[in-house]
Amino acid sequence: MLQSARPAHGRHRRRLKTRITRARVRLRRLYHGHTRNALRFQMAVLLVDMAIIAFFVFSPILRDDPSFLFVDYSVAAILAADVSARCFAARNPLKWLRQPFVLLDLVILATLLFPYTLINFGFLRIVRLWSISQSGVLWRPLRRWGHRDWEQLARAVVNLITFLFLATGFVYTTFFRKGSGLEGYLDALYFTVASVTTTGYGDITLPGSWGKLTSVVIMIIGISLFVRLAQAIFRPRKVDYPCPNCGLQRHDPDAVHCKACGQLLKIPDPGD
């Protein structure tokens, strides 16, 4: 009887393993596939991510609202489900968990689970916009609709927006948070934009040595991001065509030879 029970137990384990494998493959296809159902799923996930980021932007001024904790924990549940599903679908979960944007999501999840204990780190939540940008999820619609040329410009815009609200959140949390509400958040945003653009009206300044150092960092990084944005706008359009010899990815649309190694190129016309 024991001998018959063991094969039955083994068959049960094999069936369970097969079901888990099929579920992982199915989930992986939803997150990374190109079928109609997969594209719909990815678009739905992206819309949810954008709604979450909107909450992150305005969470400093919503913190005193009675419904804040409910929304905060709901977002935490959604983010935890997304991270768990992506980890389950990954071919190598341990390697996937070590990726920078995954670690960042875990930090953001911690600030959602402990919103008042980790209030000083809440400004890091907006970095999820950068995380989504780096993972490539944000740019799939552009690539799918044939607007890949806009990706570099869109990335520069996203980097600038992320930094603006990251700096705003830090300035608000550190210098304007106590009893200021919406007015304090707007002051922090106004100061950040004035610093990034080097306008320097001087009507709002940060007190003390830390305030001066914060202003210097915001101005230096902000100028760099503005330069990147200007380059993306005014730089001549490039096409993605890897050189078969040296692997250089981007070339001028009418390039005949690779500018890095001189390899003869056969870049197809846009209409091909």
UniProtKB/TrEMBL annotation:
Recorded superkingdom: Bacteria
Keyword Transmembrane helix attributed: yes
GO terms assigned for molecular function: voltage-gated potassium channel activity
Pfam families per the UniProt record, alphabetical: Ion_trans_2
Major subcellular site: membrane
Transmembrane segments: 38-62, 101-123, 153-172, 210-230
Source organism: Aurantimonas manganoxydans (strain ATCC BAA-1229 / DSM 21871 / SI85-9A1)
Cellular-component GO terms for this entry: membrane
PANTHER family: CALCIUM-ACTIVATED POTASSIUM CHANNEL ALPHA CHAIN (PTHR10027), SLOWPOKE 2, ISOFORM D (PTHR10027:SF10)
The protein, known as: Putative ion channel transport protein
Topological relation to the membrane, as annotated: Multi-pass membrane protein
Compartments, record wording: Membrane
Keywords, comma-separated and alphabetical: Ion channel, Ion transport, Membrane, Potassium, Potassium channel, Potassium transport, Transmembrane, Transmembrane helix, Transport
